[in-house]
Design brief:
The complex is a heterodimer of chains A (447) and B (481). By secondary structure, chain A is α+β, with helices and mostly antiparallel strands. In chain A, 23% of the residues lie in helices and 38% in strands. The N and C termini of chain A lie far apart (48 Å). The chains are: A alpha+beta (447), B alpha+beta (481).
Chain lengths: 447, 481
């Protein structure tokens, strides 16, 4: 950890050294450690300390940026000069809305000392436990256990100075037999909330049931999706269209659907960067407080997320979703703290209520085929089971699907009552329940 | 920096390391994007740091930091030891063995004519603005985009066996795209490659050679034409000719990844997946037809996988992967190669100072064949020509894949016919490559770049090269819906 005082001092110094008319500084630092295991041994075990400061120099409506992890005065000056040179050598952007004024930001306590100070031996002990669980059943364990601290600061020459520190821990394991595998995972900003034994047990039990899968014909099936599969649906909907830029540029699935009920009323999706149930970050990368945004409200498409640039174009207020500098290549504001509403059902009840269908653990390597309907292709992975008369009848070989995720959520039959959380390496959040969907299109099978 | 590297290796030796190495990496990345006549972003990112890898008690530890100072060298080396000690708690009695020592010495610099960082920013912006202005002449294009990237990475490597290398790698990338939309359609056309750009290990001269200006209006026009083009025939089996850039990605996904020996041994099973090319298949499996010859090397000009030594100090070299259809080689490391009774062929690459090296593709390419593209099309009675990737997906063992391309053309009676939109094709890897019956010749061969290959936990993004000419495949399912 670099710490509040150091970071605020360096950010203030960068502002001071900047020679542009106006300046914005973003600072991201992390200490991250990850213990990786395969074949029941720890085979990779790493740690990293880094801090990157990005300077945006502003001359009227001309901007230029530079970043550095040389946090000395010399390093900050050099980055400032580069940013200024970039700003000088470009024409004005008539849409640039200028820098925000300082606003009140409610601090959020989401930093856990135990997580921040996690010793590699603690992760090793947990990994050893999972490997033993696997070996006790003649299975093999693979996975990764990571802990991290993250510090973010945003400041500008108009008086914005925002700082937040947080922690995160993530454990994922794949358990494999001779002919089949399954996976389980969990994340939290507090290490103490992860239960390695429970995660290992979940994966082991599913892996046992996943052995010796049978081939089936592709086609349209009713499906019960575990939360890991639902995470993929929500993440793909986010990447292909929850940001205002993709709406404005014509690529988003939200186009032509705003204000319309296009998904089942059981479906609500929102973005909330202040929810302690995720990995909160109370401000965006322009230093604007994050607002909770209802993206889909009981099946009705409501709103994308905005930064100041896209908000100015649409004549609305920013929602506080400006992306970090290292994610700008993804195109504009992004929904990075996604939640799906829960329902009355459960995974077990969804399976019991299915006459014929498939229960799927997760999706893999999903890619957009057509963005307007979020038509996505991908594979199942780590556990697919045929449901017959309300029971898991037998495991099934992995299938390829090609399916509009918008249509999938229109055909939701039931929503589970409990959610599962994933915090990514970048700190993004997705927190979703299991779903039962009436129509899902499988177009191929693996060998 | 030399003193710091020696300090780390001495400390590691004092602590009792069986092996240690250190990389100090200093990288500079300049990126420009112009969108609809406005400079969308112009950035210059600089990063310096170091990572120490230690093998102690038969297990690995790695630690890294942004500050190459004596105090930090000591702290990080000790941290790497502590991590290795933790790793040693879960080894099931196994120990890492690295094979014969590596003692490489020397310097490597990417051969370039024009240093991309010497080209003034205003000249680069002017080029993208000129291209944008040409694309703007085409009605119906909603988003015009141009981007340029220049990278310089200097990497110092030393190990406890006496290796010491100093490499400076240059890369340049450039690309333009036009997005056209209608009520129900979104179409994009790109040049020279999709997903932002073509990228190679070279100087600014390559960007000039791609001639973005001459290709601007055509790119924009094709995006608009695609809106009303006929859709790719649905659920049909036909003859498919793939253009070079699409074939390069096909090679990346269905050849390059399954030959990573660490995947074969399961070390990526929790994330990137495994491989269907299990070790009993080496020299014993028909991967493709007799016209399919694939090579992995780190020597060819312009390849994003071209260097002097890998990140274990193993010299750049060439390995036949498939010869006349027979599977003959893997991408290997010092740790994995001895398990097959071999030595590393130099495929360990880390995506920065803060990552450990993993087995990554270098340049994995299809060797040119005998055909000209005109003759190949003329020889094809009915089929589809597809090029420029739009979507890609493959299963975790690298068997079942599905790709989409930006553009296709019907082939009828040996002639290219009408344009097709929303083209997709799918297959099973060895069936697909065994259906290949023709590869175009050297004149059509290009070294393509894939600058966004993801692998590892934490994630690493590698840059890989893939040389390819257009090629023909029979009985392929297209138009997946």
């Amino acid at each position: 950890m670099l710490g509040t005082e150091f970071i605020k001092e360096r950010v203030a110094r960068a502002l001071q050294l900047s020679k542009s008319d106006e300046t914005q500084i973003t600072f991201q630092a992390h200490d991250q450690a990850l213990t990786r295991f395969a074949n029941n041994i720890i085979h990779q075990n790493v740690s990293e300390s880094n801090g990157t400061l990005t300077i945006t120099a502003i001359l009227g409506r001309r901007t230029g940026s530079a970043s550095t992890n040389d946090l000395s005065d010399e390093g900050l000056s050099k980055a400032g000069e580069r940013a200024l040179n970039h700003a000088r050598n470009r024409k004005e952007d008539p849409h640039f809305p200028g820098l925000p004024e300082a606003q009140s930001i409610q601090p959020i306590q989401a930093f856990d000392d135990e997580t921040a100070n996690c010793d590699p031996s603690v992760r090793a002990e947990a990994v050893g436990l999972i490997c033993n669980q696997a070996m006790a059943k003649n299975l093999t364990a693979y996975g990764a256990y990571s802990t991290a601290t993250a510090e973010v600061a945003v400041a500008n020459s108009k008086g914005v100075m925002a700082y937040h520190s947080g922690t995160r821990a993530s454990l994922q394991t794949t358990i494999a037999g001779d002919n089949g595998s399954s996976m389980a995972e969990d994340s939290n900003w507090r290490l103490s909330q992860l239960d390695p034994a429970a995660i290992g047990q979940e994966a082991v039990e599913k892996a046992i049931k996943a052995q010796n899968p049978c081939p089936i014909e592709p086609g349209i099936y009713e499906v019960v999706l575990g939360p890991y599969a639902v995470m993929d649906i929500v993440e793909n909907l986010s990447w292909t269209g929850m940001g205002a830029r993709s709406v404005q540029e014509g690529g988003s699935w939200m186009i032509g659907r705003m204000g319309m009920e296009v998904m089942n009323p059981l479906i609500s999706i929102w973005d909330d960067g202040c929810d302690l149930a995720g990995a909160p970050l109370p401000f965006d990368f322009e230093g604007v407080p994050r607002r909770k945004v209802s993206i889909v409200d009981h099946g009705i498409v409501r709103s994308p997320v905005y930064d100041r640039y896209t908000a100015a174009k649409d004549g609305v207020e920013t929602t506080g979703h400006a992306s970090p500098p290292d994610m700008l290549w993804m195109g504009g504001p992004m929904a990075l703290h996604l939640f799906m509403g829960t329902g009355d059902s459960s995974l077990e009840e969804m399976i019991r209520s299915t006459g014929k269908g498939l229960h799927i653990n997760r999706f893999w390597y999903t890619r957009t085929v057509h963005p307007r309907d979020c038509v996505t292709t991908g594979m199942t992975r780590d556990g697919v089971w045929m449901i017959d008369d309300g029971q898991l009848a037998y495991p099934v070989k992995d299938l390829r699907f090609t399916q509009s995720y918008v249509d999938a959520l229109a055909n939701v039959i039931a929503v589970g009552g409990n959610r599962r959380l994933r915090i990514s390496e970048m700190g993004s959040v997705v927190c979703v329940p299991p779903l039962k969907i009436g129509i899902f299109n499988f177009t191929g099978v693996t060998a | 920096m030399e003193d710091l590297m020696a300090r780390a290796m001495n400390l590691a030796s004092l602590r009792g390391a069986q092996y240690a190495d250190i990389r100090i990496v200093h990288s500079l990345t300049e990126s420009l994007v112009v969108k609809n006549g406005i400079v969308d972003s112009v950035t210059l990112d600089e990063s310096i740091g170091f990572g120490v890898r230690v093998l102690a008690q038969g297990a690995w530890g790695f630690a890294s930091s942004l500050a190459p100072t004596p105090e930090e060298i000591d702290r990080i080396t000790d941290q790497a030891f502590a991590i290795a000690s933790a790793s040693a708690l879960v080894t099931q009695g196994q120990s890492v063995a690295l094979g014969p020592p590596v003692t490489s010495q020397g310097q490597f610099v990417t051969p370039i004519e024009i240093d991309p960082f010497s080209v003034p920013i205003e000249e680069k912006i002017a080029l993208l603005m000129q291209v944008d202005q040409l694309m703007s002449k085409v009605p119906g294009v909603g988003v015009r985009k141009g981007n340029l990237i220049a990278i310089r990475e200097r990497k110092l490597f030393a190990n406890s066996e006496g290796a010491h290398t100093d490499q400076t790698i240059y890369e340049v990338g450039a690309g333009i795209s036009a997005l056209a939309t209608s009520e129900s359609e979104v179409q994009v056309r790109s040049y020279p490659n999709s997903h932002g750009r073509q990228q190679v290990s070279a100087g600014w001269e390559m960007v000039l050679g791609w001639d973005l200006v001459s290709n601007a209006e055509r790119t924009a026009s094709e995006a608009v034409e695609l809106l009303t083009a006929d859709p790719c025939p649905r659920d049909q089996t036909t003859t498919l000719i793939l253009g070079g850039s699409q074939l390069a990605l096909q090679i990346h996904e269905s050849c390059g990844h399954p030959i990573e020996l660490d995947r074969v041994f399961g070390t990526e099973a929790a994330f990137a997946g495994t491989s269907f090319l299990t070790t009993e298949k080496l020299n014993n499996f028909r991967y493709g037809s007799e016209v399919v010859n694939l090579t992995a090397e780190s020597l060819r000009p312009y390849g994003l996988g071209t260097f002097g030594w890998d990140d274990e100090g193993v010299p750049a070299q060439s390995t036949p992967i498939v010869r006349e259809g027979l599977f003959t080689g893997y991408l290997m490391s010092r740790e994995t190669a001895p398990l097959l009774g071999m030595s590393s062929n130099g495929c360990m690459r880390a995506s920065g100072w803060n990552r450990i090296p993993l087995i990554r593709m270098t340049n994995v390419s299809i060797e040119p064949g005998d055909w000209t593209l005109d003759d190949l099309i003329a020889d094809t009675e009915n089929g589809i020509y597809m090029d420029t990737n739009r979507s890609w997906s493959i299963d975790d063992r690298r068997y079942n894949f599905q790709f989409g391309t930006e553009i296709g053309y019907e082939i009828k009676d040996g002639k290219l016919g009408k344009m097709l939109r929303n083209c997709t094709y799918t297959g099973i890897t060895p069936e697909f490559w065994n259906s290949c019956d023709a590869v175009c010749n050297e004149k059509h061969w290009t070294m393509w770049g894939t600058p966004n290959c993801g692998k590892g936990q934490p994630m690493q993004v590698a840059h890989t090269g893939h040389g390819a000419s257009p090629a023909r495949f029979r009985n392929i399912k297209v138009g997946v819906v």
